């Protein structure tokens, strides 16, 4: 298997509200849209996002009334302090302030109007040094 891209599909009550949030605060752009559906993308390594309106009939019946809950979309970034400041100044709904965990993870969270939690993360290997991806996730093939 060769994975060429990753997409997170979120079922939400208000597609337009989440679309506006991801475009305004996180730099996603609209790739395509239809009634009750929006596909978002970025030009970097971030996962693509598909927003589906709760109840939409393209979903199997058992999934139509489910909604995004209990998940965290984590995006690994650089310059996390500047990102938090930029988002605060833009009025983004930061729901967990920037903090650093003992294992070297620096993170904060914001929540979109439909309750989708987005966590921005930067890994620090030692004081003042940002960890490289292979240090966090192991060697990549």
Query: Would you identify the CATH architecture?
Result: Roll
Q: What low-confidence regions span 5 or more consecutive residues with pLDDT below 50?
A: none
Number of strand elements: 9
Termini distance?
13 Å
CATH top level is Alpha Beta
Coarse shape: globular
Structural class: alpha+beta
Largest sheet: 5 strands, mixed
CATH homology superfamily: 2,3-Dihydroxybiphenyl 1,2-Dioxygenase, domain 1
- The percent range for strand residues is 35-45%
Mean pLDDT: 87
InterPro entries: Glyas_Bleomycin-R_OHBP_Dase, Glyas_Fos-R_dOase_dom, VOC_core
Organism: Kitasatospora cinereorecta
Protein name: VOC family protein
Pfam family, one: Glyoxalase
Descriptive account of the structure:
The protein has a single domain (7-57, 66-137), classed as 2,3-Dihydroxybiphenyl 1,2-Dioxygenase, domain 1, CATH 3.10.180.10. 19% of the residues lie in helices and 38% in strands. The protein has three helices and nine strands, in the order βαββββαββββα. The strands form two sheets. Strands 5, 6, 7, 8 and 9 form a five-stranded mixed beta sheet that branches. The chain has a four-stranded mixed beta sheet with strand order 1-4-3-2, covered by helices on one side. β7 and β8 form a beta hairpin. It starts with 6 loop residues before the first strand and ends with a helix. Residues 4-123 form the VOC domain.
């Amino acid at each position: 298997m060769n994975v060429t891209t990753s997409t997170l599909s979120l079922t939400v009550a208000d597609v337009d509200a989440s679309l506006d949030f991801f475009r305004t605060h996180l730099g996603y752009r609209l790739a395509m849209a239809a009634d009750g559906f929006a596909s978002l993308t970025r030009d970097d390594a971030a996962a693509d996002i598909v927003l589906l309106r709760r109840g939409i009939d393209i979903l199997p019946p058992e999934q139509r009334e489910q909604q995004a809950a209990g998940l965290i979309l984590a995006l690994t970034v650089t310059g996390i302090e500047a990102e938090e400041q930029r988002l605060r100044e833009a009025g983004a709904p930061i729901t967990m302030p920037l903090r650093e965990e003992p294992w070297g993870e620096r993170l904060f969270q914001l929540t979109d109007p439909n309750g989708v939690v987005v966590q921005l993360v930067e890994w620090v290997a030692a004081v003042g040094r940002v960890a490289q991806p292979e240090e966090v996730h192991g060697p990549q093939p």
